[in-house]
């Protein structure tokens, strides 16, 4: 059967250290039993210690990658990650409108673990006005949610307010990642669904610096589950459980913020789930 295998697309930058970006996306999607294609919009020189440099791809190359994928593969869900600058965001938005790529998860990557900016400040407004209205799910961490909403987030109530503000910008479903910054001893994320329902997803805190690529992995897992036909709520819950497993069952790579263990399994899950 032509294109019978479930296929997804990541639209993001590379990570030469292998822990984040397109590399983390493809590893995650592979482990979640879907086939992943990629549109590389930026190339970074980085490792677990930080980002040394990056370069955005020319618009022509971005366009050609989208065209090559769309004319041959059947993409059932897509995600965006690092988008670098205004021209890149605009090129991605143009192609997302041109091709049917299924539900879209937007991970608004702005700053790397080591502090390097991966989205130019002038591109934030372009993301807000052009990309967010296309998102099925938006998955910002607290600093990203603060940048997008213009508010400080210091409490669980603030997370709820931020989620509503983001939904008011045109996003259907919002997942605000609290990490360990709001709830002591646990990682708490707030979800606001398109129908107005909301819930928290939590997991125990793991004391580790092996967290490089956490956001990429979560958004990729959500994308994979959406491609398999899961509901938004189920995809988010599975994503949270998978990321928790990849952190808890750590691997030893590099001298800094190490990568997750993408081989990790969700407890009680069958291999074909």
UniProtKB/TrEMBL annotation:
One of its GO terms (cellular component) is cytosol. Gene3D superfamilies: 3.40.1190.20. Pfam families: Phos_pyr_kin. GO terms for molecular function: ATP binding; hydroxymethylpyrimidine kinase activity; phosphomethylpyrimidine kinase activity. Residues 15-261 form the Pyridoxamine kinase/Phosphomethylpyrimidine kinase domain. Pathway: Cofactor biosynthesis; thiamine diphosphate biosynthesis; 4-amino-2-methyl-5-diphosphomethylpyrimidine from 5-amino-1-(5-phospho-D-ribosyl)imidazole: step 2/3; Cofactor biosynthesis; thiamine diphosphate biosynthesis; 4-amino-2-methyl-5-diphosphomethylpyrimidine from 5-amino-1-(5-phospho-D-ribosyl)imidazole: step 3/3. It catalyses: 4-amino-2-methyl-5-(phosphooxymethyl)pyrimidine + ATP = 4-amino-2-methyl-5-(diphosphooxymethyl)pyrimidine + ADP; 4-amino-5-hydroxymethyl-2-methylpyrimidine + ATP = 4-amino-2-methyl-5-(phosphooxymethyl)pyrimidine + ADP + H(+). GO terms for biological process: thiamine biosynthetic process. Coiled coil: none annotated. Its EC number is 2.7.1.49, 2.7.4.7. InterPro entries: HMP/HMP-P_kinase_dom, PM/HMP-P_kinase-1, Ribokinase-like. Keywords: ATP-binding, Kinase, Nucleotide-binding, Thiamine biosynthesis, Transferase. It comes from the Bacteria. Belongs to the ThiD family. NCBIfam families: HMP-P_kinase. This is Hydroxymethylpyrimidine/phosphomethylpyrimidine kinase.
